[in-house]
Amino acid sequence: MKQIGIIGMGKWGKNLIKEFSNFAEISICVTNGNQENINWIQKNYPKTKISTNVNDILNENDIDAIVIATPIITHYELIKKSLESGKHVFVEKPMVQTIGQANEVINIAKYKKLCLFVGHVFLHNQIFKQIKKIHKSENIMELNFDWRKFGTFEENIFENLLTHELSINLELFGIPNKCKLLSKSSYIIDVDSFYIQLDYGENKKSNIHINRVSNYKKKIITIITKKNLFIWDDDKLFKLNKKTKLFKIYFESSETPLFLECKNFISDISRKKSKIDSAILARDIVTIVSKMKKN
Q: β-strands 65-68, 2-7: how paired?
């Protein structure tokens, strides 16, 4: 069984520990010293070492991979140090904040022949796999994203939330010809709501609306092909029946995306080959996000 170490013990870090423990041994966790998080580890994973020093995880020779679930601003240095220590890396999105940082960590992963895996969790959803099949057979012409929630004000909205929607777009269509920020609004910090349109040419486009000051929560993706209309809502994909004008469940996920994502990472590092596909996708995402941040 592979041995991994995890840096970051916040809400998402705990989720990653739970899922990775299905496929690997959690050897060590690095935390900022929060006693509540330390107690949680000691209770649920008593065999796991706990440290407040990142060097303890970097210097642990038996660890195969390091999982990074820390604030975005810390990603670059932690990825770089982890790769240089000879460890495969799983890092939560966004990978880094600049194109220069992205190129550097990708080059280190190539040189060291290591996996650099970025957590674009929606790409591991079973529904997304179905959407890729639909695109292959019916040719998706338009995507409409509507994401409403409240919170995550401590991170830049483009880096933290837009990254998810861009991962879906770029995986399906590639890099857009044009990317326009149609509008943005500020309520609590600099940007809390925005509309973006991606133009891929040949009448193919994507519209993205994200609002993080909503009094209700929803995340809907409408998929329009040359033949049909689908709606991705949580763990279900619905298809519109044109005759009855009713939506019917077309596909339903049976496993969580995070479970599948962690499983795929362990599978990648078990092949003992360098794999940087998701890191290259992450670099393309950083390119677009950087442009949006300047608007």
A: parallel
